[in-house]
Amino acid sequence: MKPLLRALQIVGVLLAVLSLAFGYCGFGLPFAFTDPVKVKQALIVCFWILTPPLWFGFETWARSSDVEDDRQFDRLKYNQELASKIWLALVSVLLLLYFGKDIAAKV
């Protein structure tokens, strides 16, 4: 199971980088349901809002059989806590990249 988890982690990092790079497309344009780029960006943000919590649950379930003592479980919790902060930063940056003009217009 460990090689599968490692592969999924690498895919997650690549998806994060690609999501950030996709911010270049349609940058500074307002959101419109008729704009396919903005709709794709909205779907990407939804993906990043929903998927990581599901991943954390899956990872805890998958690795719980590997945990032999409390120190290993504490390390898993620490790593997930760190990853959740990175995830929050990623979602915040994506929201600003994709929809910054819309957010600024409302303020």
Low-confidence stretches: none
Q: Supply the helix-strand structural class.
A: mainly alpha
What form results from the Cα inertia axes? elongated
Largest beta sheet, briefly?
A: none
Number of strands: 0
Mean residue pLDDT? 87
Helix content: over 70%
Number of helical stretches of at least 4 residues = 3
Structural overview:
By secondary structure, the protein is mainly alpha-helical. The chain has one domain (2-106). It has helices at 2-21, 36-63, 70-106. Helix 2 (36-63) runs antiparallel to helix 3. It is elongated and about 50 Å long. The relative contact order is 0.15. The model has no long low-confidence stretch (mean pLDDT 87).
Short description:
The protein has 107 residues and is mostly helical. The protein has one domain. The protein has three helices and no strands.
Give a quick set of tags describing it.
107 residues, mainly alpha
Furnish the topology, listing elements before pairings:
Elements: H1 2-21, H2 36-63, H3 70-106
Helix pairs in contact: 2-3
